[in-house]
Amino acid sequence: MTRTEWTEDVLGAPYERLELPLGEDSEGAVVATLVRRRRSAADLLHAGGPLHGTDVLYVHGWSDYFFQTELAERIERLGARFHALDLRKYGRSLRPRQTPGFIDSLETYDEDIGAALDVIRAEHHGERRRLVPMGHSTGGLTLSLWAARHPEAVDGLILNSPWLEFQASAVGRALVAPMIKLGARRNPLAPLPAVDPGFYTRTVSATGEGRWTYDQEWRPERGFPLHPGWLAAVFDGQGTVEHGLGIAVPVLTMLSDKSMLQPRWDEGMAHADVALNVDAVAHRALSLGDEVTVRRLHGALHDVVLSAGPVREQAYEAIGRWAHTLPR
Q1: Which pLDDT score is estimated for 200?
Q2: With 90 as the cut, is the pLDDT of residue 46 above it?
Q3: What 3-state DSSP class applies to 178?
Q4: For residues 104, 135, 101 and 64, what is the CA-based torsion angle, rounded to 10 degrees?
């Protein structure tokens, strides 16, 4: 399949994007979109750091897309080459008449990730470089499973509040999953009740208590509609993590120090994870592999790198320290 050329991204210069054709499914043509920050001569002169010689591929979470330019700049300041991937049916890759974010198996994303890595490797003309994927929320679950299936490709893994376990814990997932999977077999695209009250958007968006501006069609206030086919795929992935992934490379998992999962707004939500049960995720992270670092950040949001400035600094410091543990 022929790829288009790099063009200026919606984020503006120096960000560029490349469309990655992925064939068709029942809803038509499918693409993923790779985003990079075009580097200047000055950037190349200061490319040292603990992530020198490393490619970082970032994958977003549910109802999300890449817009975190500070993240890209800070990761590259550590010496890495940063790329972000908008998966099929998300953000830049979402096409008319497609069901936003829908997938019935997280393994399907192997195609998206593989296409992105082909482009990244071609940029280096065969040079051997380390690969450290970085995933947020559902993207963290997706990349954890991908890393376990592709151990020869990965040198480390960074997870930002990965959705490794159901909010109600493994027991709750075991109770709910059979009903969801039955629904997925009968009608995978059936609508499920909306469960997002919009509190996460309120903690992040500049229109609420947050400080960030982004495209609210690509990252809607109450998230994309939920469907049993997609949720069954997530439960399958979480069940696989529960049984252990055996990832042999170092893993860094960053999480807030507390969750606030409640039906009414509270000012404390502006300094907590309002999407995940962080204690359950911290425990489940130990099932990822042999060398897992769990870093709890006081006052962090669900997306750690969208938290208040001091929290973000702690997160980038944690990444820098952890990067020194990677094999050369």
Answers
A1: 96
A2: no
A3: helix
A4: 160
Give the model's pLDDT for residue 15. 98
Rounded CA separation 81/22 (Å)? 24
Q: Count each helix (H run) and each strand (E run) in the chain, helices first.
A: 9, 9
Rounded Cα gap, residues 214 and 200, in angstroms? 14
Q: What's the pLDDT band for 181 if we cut at 50, 70, 90?
A: confident
Question: Is residue 72 a contact partner of residue 84, using CB atoms and an 8 Å limit?
Answer: yes
247's tokens? 């990832």
Q: What is the mean pLDDT of residues 115-139?
A: 95
| Confidence check: pLDDT of 45 > 60 | no
- Would you say 169 and 195 are in contact if contact means Cβ atoms under 8 Å apart? no
The whole-angstrom separation of Cα 146 and Cα 148 is 5
Residues comprising the chain, all counted: 328
Domains present along the chain, CATH in parentheses:
7-323 (3.40.50.1820)
Calculate mean pLDDT across residues 103-131.
95
pLDDT at residue 328, as a whole number: 79
Question: Are 234 and 192 in contact, with CB atoms under 8 Å apart?
Answer: no
Q: Please give the residue that has the higher pLDDT: either 74 or 328.
A: 74
Distance CA 291, CA 246 (A): 10
CB atoms within 10 A of CB 324: 9
Instruction: Tell me which residue has tokens 């509609």.
Output: 225
In whole angstroms, what separates CA 211 from the centre of its chain?
20
Residue 97 CB coordination number (10 Å): 6
- Residue 123: alpha-carbon gap to chain centroid: 23
Global pTM reads 0.95
Q: How far apart are CA 137 and CA 59, in angstroms?
A: 9
